[in-house]
Amino acid sequence: MSEHVGENQALNVKNKRLVAKLFGAIVLMFGFGFALVPLYDVFCEITGINGRLVNNNQEQSTLVDKSRTVRLQFTTSVAPGMPWQFKPHVNYVDVHPGESKVVKFLASNQSDANVTGQAIPSVSPGVASLYLNKTECFCFQQQILKSGESIDMGLVFFVSTEIPADIKTLTLSYTLFNVTDPDSIQAVDLQAAL
Amino acid sequence: MSTLSTAQEHDEHHDHKPKGMMRWILTTNHKDIGSMYLIFSFAMFLIGGAMAMVIRAELYQPGLQIVEPNFFNQMTTVHGLIMVFGAVMPAFTGLANWLIPMMIGAPDMALPRMNNWSFWILPMAFAILLSSLFMEGGGPNFGWTFYAPLSTTYAPDSTALFVFSVHIMGISSILGAINVVVTIINMRAPGMTYMKMPLFVWTWLITAFLLIAVMPVLAATVTMVLTDKYFATSFFSAAGGGDPVLFQHIFWFFGHPEVYIMILPSFGIISAIVPAFSRKKLFGYSSMVYATASIALLSFIVWAHHMFTTGMPVAAELFFMYCTMLISVPTGVKVFNWVATMWRGSMTFETPMLFAIAFIVLFTIGGFSGLMLAITPADFQYHDTYFVVAHFHYVLVTGAIFSIMAAAYYWLPKWTGYMYDEKLGKLHFWASLISVNVLFFPMHFLGLAGMPRRVPDYALQFADFNQLVSLGGFAFGVSQLIFLVVVIKCARGGEKAPAKPWEGAEGLEWDMPSPAPYHSHTTPPEVK
To answer: Is the same domain home to A80 and A121?
Structure first.
C-alpha cells in the first residue's frame, strides 16, 4: 500500500512539473502574440513589403537615368471624422529615376473648428516603397489648419536609380487622419462661445 | 480506518456522488465531464444551426424580407463563433474526456478538478456572447474573423463582451488541452508505448499542442482589439502608426492551426472506425502518426494563404501557395491509408461506418476545393465568395461534424450500455448526406459566378441556386433532430449492448463492460 501511495506522489510531482512547463509555454505564446507587432514592423521595414514608406535617407544620386521614365500617380483620401478636403494639384508626374520633383497637395479645413491632421503615406506596389525617397514631405509633421483655412502642402521626392526595370508605375496614396487632441477642440469651442 | 479494507473504503468513498444538479456541478469524473461537454456542444450545435436557418431563410429570395442587414451580420458572426468554439471544439474535448482515459488504460484524466473548471466556464462564455445579441446596438456583427477596423472603429458597443467571451472560451480550451497532454504523457498503462496508442489519442495529443501554441495568440489578438477600441491604442489603426493588415497576420497565425485543431481529432476517429468495420488492421499506422505531425507543423507556415488579396509581394504569395499545397501530401497519405484499410476487408455498413465513408469522400472534396483556393492567381477570383463558404463547410460539416456523428454512433453503446436504433441512425445518415450536399454543393457554383459571402441580399441571377441551397439547409437542420431522438432513445434503454458490440473493434475501451463503469481501469491493464 505504501508503495502505491509513493507511486501516486511521484505521479503528482510529475504532473505538476509538466503542468508548470505547459503554463510557461502558454505565457510565452501570449507574449509572442504581442511580439508579432514589432516583429511585423521590422520585417516590413527590411523588406519594404507592405507599402509603408521607409525613407532610408539615401544620398541623392547626382546621376539621372534619362534612359527610362517612371510614372508616379497620386491618390488622396480622408479618414472618417476628418473634415478636410484634400487633393493633389496633379494626378501624376513622369520622372526619370534620380530626378527630383516637387508636387503640391491642396488641403482645406471645411469645419468650424481648428483641426490638426496627419497624413499617412502608402506605396503600391509594396516593394516600390524601397525606391521612393522623399526629401521633404508634409507627412513628416502634423498640419494645423484653422477653420476655413487652406494650404498648399509640398512634397519633394526622387525615385532611386536602382528601381527595378519592371516597375514602371508607382502609386503614392495619402490618407489624412484627424489627430486633433479632444481637449483642444473643447478649448476652441470655449473660445467660440466667448 | 485502518481496520477497514482500504480498497473497499476507497471504492465506496469514490462512488459516492451528490444527487441532482450538484453531482454535475461538482463532478471531477472524466465520463460525467465528457457527457456534459457533448450535451453542451449539441445544444450549441442546435443554437448555431437555428442562426444558420435565419441566414438561409433571408437568402431564400433576393431582397430584404425577414431580418435587417445588421441582424443578418450578427447571425453570420455568431453562427460562426458558436459552431467553431461552441460546437466542434467542445465536442472533441468531450470525446477526449470520455475516451482517452479508457483508451490508454488510465483511471481518469490527470487533472480532474481543472477538468471541472474547463467545462463549467464554457456555458458562462456563451451566455455572455449570446446575451450581447440583446444589447443596444446589437451583438458582434463583424464576422467570426473580426477583422479590424470592423471590430474596432466600426464595432458595436457590445464588443467588450465578445472579447471577454472569447477570452473565456480560450482559457477553457487551453485548460482542456493541458489536461489531455498531461494525461497522455503521464497516465498511460504499463506497456502502452507512444507507438501503441490508438490514433485518436495521437491526434488529440498533437491537437492539444496546437491549442497550447495558438489559443494564447488568439487571446493576444482579442486583447489588442479591446485596447484599440476602448483604450486608444493603435495596434491596427494607421492613424496611430499601426496597420490593419497586421490584424490579419496575427489572427491567421492563430486561425490556420485552429482549422487543424478542428480536423485532426476527426482523423483519429475515422482511423478507429474504418478498421473496425473493415475487420482489418489500420493500414500504415506509423505513417498516420507522422502525417498528423507534419500537418500540424505545416499549419504554422501557411497562414497568409487567407490574405492573398492584401497586396503581398509575389515571392511571399508563392511561398504560402507552395506550403499550402504541400499539406495535401500528408493528407493524401491519410486518405490513401483509409482506402487501403477498406481494400479487401469484409466490410459492413452500420451507421458509424456510413458516416466515416461519407467523411472520407466529402472531406476530400473539401480538400480539393482548398487546393483550388491555394492557387494564388485563382484565389483572386474565389476570395470572399460563396466558393470559400462551400469549401470550409465541406471540411467542417461533412468533415468535422460527420466524424463527430460517426464517433457518437460508434461509442454510444459503450457510453449508455444500449444499442442505438440502427434504422433511425441510417435514416439520419441518408437524410443528412443528401441534404448536406444540396445545401453546400451549389455554393461552389454561386461563388464561381461571383456571389460574395456575408451579404443579406444578392443579384437576381443567383436566386434559383440560393433557393435550392436554402431548401437543402432546412432539410439538413431538420435531419439533425433525428440524431437527438436516436441519442435520447439510446440513453433510455433498448437492446443491451455487449462489452464489444462491433466485431472488428480494437482498443482497451472495448475490454470494459458496457456501459463503462463510473471509474475506468482502477487497476492498470497490461498492454502487450
So the answer is: yes
The CA distance from B380 to B372, in Å, is: 11
Q: What is the C-alpha separation between A114 and A185, in angstroms, rounded?
A: 7
Q: B74 vs chain A: nearest CA distance in angstroms?
A: 23
In a shared domain, residues A127 and A88: yes
The reported pTM is: 0.88
Instruction: List the domains of chain B with CATH numbers.
Output: 26-237 (1.20.210.10)
Q: Which of B181, B239, B246 sits opposite A22 (nearest CB)?
A: B181
The residue from B56, B229, B280, B305 that is catalytic is B305
Query: Does A64 fall in a domain?
Result: no
- Note whether A15 contacts B217, CB cutoff 8 Å: no
Complex ipTM more than 0.85, yes or no: yes
Range of the domain at A21: 1-47
Clarify whether residues A78 and A156 are in a common domain.
yes
Per-residue pLDDT of chain B (528 residues; tens, 9 = 90+): 343 334 444 444 455 677 788 889 999 999 999 999 999 999 999 999 999 999 999 999 999 999 999 999 999 999 999 999 999 999 999 999 999 999 999 999 999 999 999 999 999 999 999 999 999 999 999 999 999 999 998 999 999 999 999 999 999 999 999 999 999 999 999 999 999 999 999 999 999 999 999 999 999 999 999 999 999 888 998 777 788 999 999 999 999 999 999 999 999 999 999 999 999 999 999 999 999 999 999 999 999 999 999 888 888 899 999 999 999 999 999 999 999 999 999 999 999 999 999 999 999 999 999 999 999 999 999 999 999 999 999 999 999 999 999 999 999 999 999 999 999 999 999 999 999 999 999 999 999 999 999 999 999 999 999 999 999 999 999 999 999 999 999 999 889 999 999 999 999 999 999 999 988 888 888 887
Q: Given an 8 Å threshold on Cβ–Cβ distance, is A126 in contact with B312?
A: yes
- Would you call A33 and B249 a contact, using CB atoms and an 8 Å cutoff? no
| A 53-72: CB under 8 A from B | none
A153 and A101 together in one domain: yes
Number of domains chain A is built from: 2
**How is B154-212 classified by DSSP, letter by letter?**
T--TTHHHHHHHHHHHHHHHHHHHHHHHHHHHH-PPTT--GGGS-HHHHHHHHHHHHHH
CA angle, corner A12, sides to A6 and A14, nearest 5?
105
Claim to verify: residue A93 and residue A13 sit in the same structural domain: no
Residue A98 lies in a domain: yes
In whole angstroms, what is the distance from residue B439 CA to residue B401 CA? 15
